[in-house]
Design a protein that fits this description.
23 helices; DHBP synthase; eleven-stranded mixed sheet
């Protein structure tokens, strides 16, 4: 007989891992124990060497689907241990610094979903049903090890029936920490705010029934979910949707939808296999799907996609016994932080609704719904949050390096922390110009540092001196007497792709709306040759004056005017008439006097300008609106393109011919579909042509593409088509968003390469 110590790290707590290990051990005739530790899971196994090896192989190959094993080791013990009589789950221990990881919140499994509609089951209609395979995790965990006492379920003492499930090894609720039932678990409360005073008017089933009635009557109800509140209303009631738009300050931005089942979604959208798998999987994010013509136009005006998700909590399953389709949008005033605490929700959402379906379990970590889209089978994360956070990303070059705090960027706030070779990125934190989001940033950083016992030794920030994240990083470093390093925004975008794919030499294409450049201008249409730590800016869109500063990003007509002034001034009166745009002449005066100091090479602003030129969108009521509405007109199978000039001596991509071609097409009365398609394909050709030039100079054939512009599925698919059959290998972000929320990973990787 042998004794072996087996150590496992990764997401191995809170996913039914110890019960799985016990069942597997008993199957192989193994005696000993398994316990949660500060690093993950420790197993002591007693059996023949052959049995132990087969047991370990079984554990590694058949671990619970929601787990992630990052490392494993096995050591045979020389010292004699007492013989074990059976295999047990031992109490959790913590003897050193925490390095264990915790799981994300997991969508309700099929078995739990079936139980809540089974009148003969004791979980019938219980909105907090869960098991080891599903339910809240990240949102309720206060500390590690992951035991009930360390979660917001601590105050709910299990009844005899729940305790029996919890202690029966064959039961799927064996050691399910949030296990509960109507006798002993959380309960629903319907709260109505009357004269600014919240009052509990109904509880349990009556609270639920009244909520259903309110929604059927066309009311907006704030419903507490796993990670925060949603604002919910009837998706087929145009009047209530318009009311929600007005009260939420969201005049055009699409609302997320939740449907009863996949067949209902198919009534409104086309769905491929990858999209279906994501909709029905463990994460159940919002998936952006190509809508059928004019489908629910008031929910997502002017864009090509609808954002759909399926029920992922028992409460949502119960709701959809009464509804086919509901708006399920984030519970906040537009752009502000998600509401997760009752008192704050009552106060901040009271202008939108007086009705709140809540419950008496605390949300310890707020986390919004993730958003995903697909370019064919390629997954593109738009918002990384519920279901994806805090899953780790392995960085092979991180071993034996100092712990890092990467502050990220501001537009899509998300920081990152490292320990050894693990990168942990925060959930989506919103635009950090809003105070509620900066508080969310601080709150989340404090949690990540505490629960994972992370003690950063190095700080990295964006080079933009006025970002909140940069200022915060600087103050954090000064307070803790740590070195702080800065990396340019668009370089970090490319390094994030390199980190995901363990690359060192790439041709980088970084397209977004804004980012502080090394020369003090606003970059965003950049081509790089990167050889490890050496990063050459090979080319960029030609600079244009950034008249009006940030207002140019909110009002695309201003960028359209600037492009016309530069390249086709004779068309200004036709396309940007003073009668429609009264501030036009003031901007022209600035341009004529050449008084604008700030310049931009932004591809995002170029998309904005084209959207305005062809009368698709002149004002952005939300970030990316003009580009999204321009994309809606584009045919990804289109193959005509405008001409481009490349000035190699000055490293400039001249777009004069593109603008002149677009204006001539407008004057020739070409359709918006034709011009948008031609423009998109022109950008795809631009990427290919510049990569050929960079490859000729560098010999590199790996291309990394990142930045918010690459959330555009039409452009991504066109680029893939143009590159098809070439010698190039394309790499994209898939584990982090290509927008600013992925910046922290790039900040980390650039430092790791430099510190080798």
């Amino acid at each position: 007989m042998k004794h072996a110590e087996i150590l496992l790290t990764g997401i191995v707590q809170g996913v039914g891992f110890r019960p799985f290990v016990k069942r597997t051990a008993l199957h192989h005739g193994i005696k000993g124990y398994v316990e949660n530790r500060e690093f993950g899971v420790k197993i002591v196994a007693q059996a023949s060497k052959k049995s132990i090896e087969e047991f370990v192989k079984d554990v590694l190959n058949n671990a619970p689907a929601v787990s992630t094993i990052l490392t494993h080791s096995i050591k045979y013990l020389e010292s004699e241990l007492p013989d074990f009589k059976t295999f047990e789950i031992a109490p959790s221990k913590k003897k050193g610094e925490i390095s264990a990881l915790i799981p994300p919140d997991i969508a309700t499994c099929d078995k739990c979903a079936q139980e809540i509609i089974d009148k003969d089951d004791r979980h019938f209609s219980y909105p907090f049903t869960n098991c080891t395979n599903c339910g809240p995790r990240f949102s309720i965990i206060r500390s590690i090890p992951y035991d009930r006492k360390n979660t917001t379920m601590k105050k709910f003492i299990m009844c005899d029936d729940c305790n029996r499930e919890y202690t029966t090894v064959a039961d799927r609720r064996y050691h399910a920490q949030p296990n509960a039932c109507p006798k002993c678990g959380p309960e629903l409360q319907l709260i109505e705010v009357v004269d600014e005073n919240p009052v509990v008017t109904e509880r349990r089933e009556r609270a639920f029934d009244k909520t259903v009635s309110f929604l059927q009557q066309g009311e907006i109800v704030a419903i507490k979910g796993i990670g925060g509140y949603h604002l919910v209303c009837n998706a087929l009631n145009k009047e209530v949707i318009e009311k929600l738009r007005k009260l939420k300050y969201r005049p055009q931005k699409p609302f997320a939808l939740m449907a009863r089942d996949i067949d209902i979604i198919k009534e409104y959208c086309a769905i491929n296999d990858s999209e279906k798998e994501m909709l029905e999987g463990q994460q159940k994010p919002i998936v952006l799907l190509g809508k059928k013509k004019y489908a629910l136009e008031n929910v997502a005006p002017g864009v090509k996609d609808l954002g759909f998700m399926l029920p992922y909590t028992p409460l949502q399953y119960l709701l959809f016994k009464h509804f086919r389709l509901l708006v399920f949008t984030s519970g906040n005033i537009s752009e502000e932080a998600l509401e997760n605490k009752d008192d704050s929700a009552f106060r901040n959402l009271s202008r939108i609704t007086q009705y709140y379906l809540s419950y008496n379990r605390e949300i310890f970590n707020r986390i919004d719904d993730s958003i995903v889209t697909y370019a064919g089978d390629q997954r593109i994360l738009i918002r990384k949050a519920r279901g994806f956070v805090p899953k780790p990303i392995n960085i092979k070059k991180g071993i034996d390096k100092p712990q890092i705090f990467a502050a990220g960027a501001d537009m899509k706030g998300s920081f990152g922390l490292t320990k050894e070779n693990i990168f942990l990125g925060s959930q989506y934190l919103g635009d950090l110009v809003f105070n509620s989001n900066t508080e969310f940033y601080r709150e989340s950083l404090s949690y990540f540092q505490s629960i994972f016992e992370m003690k950063p030794e190095v700080v990295i920030a964006d080079s933009h001196p006025n970002y909140f994240s940069t200022q915060f990083a600087k103050e954090f470093a000064e307070e803790k007497e740590l070195p702080v390093h800065y990396i340019q925004h668009h370089k970090a975008h490319i390094y994030s792709v390199m980190a995901e794919n363990d690359l060192e030499n790439v041709l980088g294409v970084s397209f977004d709306g804004t980012g502080y450049g090394d020369d003090g201008n606003i970059w965003g249409g950049e081509f790089f040759i990167i050889k490890s730590i050496d990063c050459e800016r090979f080319a960029h869109l030609n600079y244009l004056p950034m008249v009006s500063g940030e207002r140019a990003a909110k009002e695309p007509w201003r960028m359209a005017l600037i492009y016309l002034f530069k390249y086709f001034p004779d068309a200004i009166d036709t396309i940007i008439p003073t009668a429609t745009f009264p501030q036009r002449d003031m901007i022209l005066h600035q341009l004529l006097n050449d008084s604008v100091q700030l310049q931009t090479s932004s591809m995002g602003r170029f998309f904005d300008a084209v959207a305005s030129l062809i009368d698709v969108c002149h004002y952005n009521s939300y970030e990316g609106e003009a580009a999204m509405k321009l994309e809606a007109f584009a045919d990804e199978n289109f193959s005509e393109y405008y001409n481009i000039n490349f000035d190699k001596q000055q490293s400039l991509i001249e777009v004069a011919l593109i603008i002149r071609g677009i204006v001539n097409d407008i004057l020739d009365d070409r359709s918006k579909k034709y011009i948008s398609s031609k423009f998109h394909f022109t950008i795809a050709r631009m990427v290919f042509d510049l990569c050929k030039k960079m490859k000729k100079e560098s010999g590199i054939d790996s291309v990394a593409l990142s930045g918010g512009v690459f959330q555009n599925v039409v452009l991504v698919n066109m680029i893939k088509r143009v590159f098809y059959g070439s010698d190039f290998k394309l790499f994209w972000n898939e584990k982090v968003p290509p927008n600013d929320a992925g910046i922290a990973l790039g900040q980390v990787y650039s430092f790791l390469l430099k510190s080798r």
